[in-house]
Amino acid sequence: MGERWASARRQYAYAVVLIRELVATDFRMKYQSSVLGYVWSLLRPFFMFAIMYAFFGIFLGTGNGIPHYSSYLLLGILLWNFFAEVTGQGVQSVVAQASMLRKIHFPKYVIVLSVSVTALINLAISFIVLGVFMVTLGADVRWASFLVILLVAELALLAIGMSFFLSALYVKFRDASYIWEIALQAGFYVTPVFYVMSFVQAKSLFVAAVLMSNPIAQVIQDARYLMITKQTTVTEDVFSTGWYRLVPIATDLVVAALSIWYFKRQAPLFAEAV
User: Fold this and answer.
1) Do residues 221 and 192 touch, judged by C-beta distance below 8 A?
2) Alpha-carbon gap, residue 197 to 209, rounded angstroms
3) For a Cys staple, 134 with which of 51, 81, 139, 205, CB 3.0–4.6 Å?
């Protein structure tokens, strides 16, 4: 029993070291020839926010009646970008390490996890900027806001699970990246990132229920409820019972479990297939 425990600890330590090195290498390769370097990781979502706020918030008045709509919108963009970054980068992550797979024997899951860790670092720093942004605009920052960590963990479970599946699928079917890119574009519009769920609910309760069954929508709306305003529409406002809150969570667990199973099944074949 002692030897098994020691072996497990060594494998865990080895995996942590590999993830750390892969993350560090990714940062160096991505920003080595850039003047602003890592700052670009922060600028992209904030440029996206500025454009969307100008069009939807000011020109169309989408956020009328929503306190601190600018923070409301920015939070939605940051959470969606995290999911898109983890899955979008995760699709090709295994194939991108083809030379490493052929030369070194190591746990394949560290490749996918390294991409996820990079995205989590970007999200954590973006959340710090969001906090400063909210305080500057006079938003009421509550202690309950720290519970958003649990929601990020829920979103990370879904994103990492999808990355395991997509990365293994891409090894066999290179069309997977193009299909997922289209899926992300569609997902952006069926997720309440820039529009307000209460507006959808007023138009069609059925459509609102379908949209809120989306685990990403549930996370974004709950995060807004905790951090921005209690006027945010959450699961209990759409469904007649709070038990429906378990639907998105159950979806996360099922997707993660099936994806990890598929990845483990395909992992022994990666070195030959890539």
Assistant:
1) yes
2) 10
3) 139
